[in-house]
Every structure is written in structure tokens, then in C-alpha cells.
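Many introductory courses stop at the sequence. We go one step further.
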Amino acid sequence: MTPVDPHPWTIWQLRGSGLVARCEVRFAAIGVEARLLRNERFFQSCIFATGEDALAWAEEHRRRTAAETSPAGRRVH
């Protein structure tokens, strides 16, 4: 699906542990799309009926990503 708004807004960006992660939002034909990119590659997206829902989703993913990129949050496999 082609977004109605070709210019997304960056909501947040995090760097750490060799990862650059960012979340963008834009208006789409059927709602508001929130999109995650990792090292400038598409990672995940979701379309919401409202901007409020899109921002809540973005915030949850920011918290998760911050835990992954912080030294205390790194997992040892």
C-alpha cells in the first residue's frame, strides 16, 4: 500500500550495541502507520485508526528497543 503522506515524521531514534533504531509515523490511506527501522532497514509496521494508538505502539517499542541497546539490557546468548 502506498502511503498518502510520503514524508514520515521521526518519533524517536536510539543508538547502541551496533544498532541504530528509529520509529517513523505517517498518514496512510486507512489510518496512521507507525514504522520501525533498524540500521535503515524496514523491521516492522502497523496501521492504526488514530494517531494516539500509533504513538502508544511507538512508545512501547521505544522502551523495548532501549532495553536492547543499553549495556544493562543486553542479553547473553
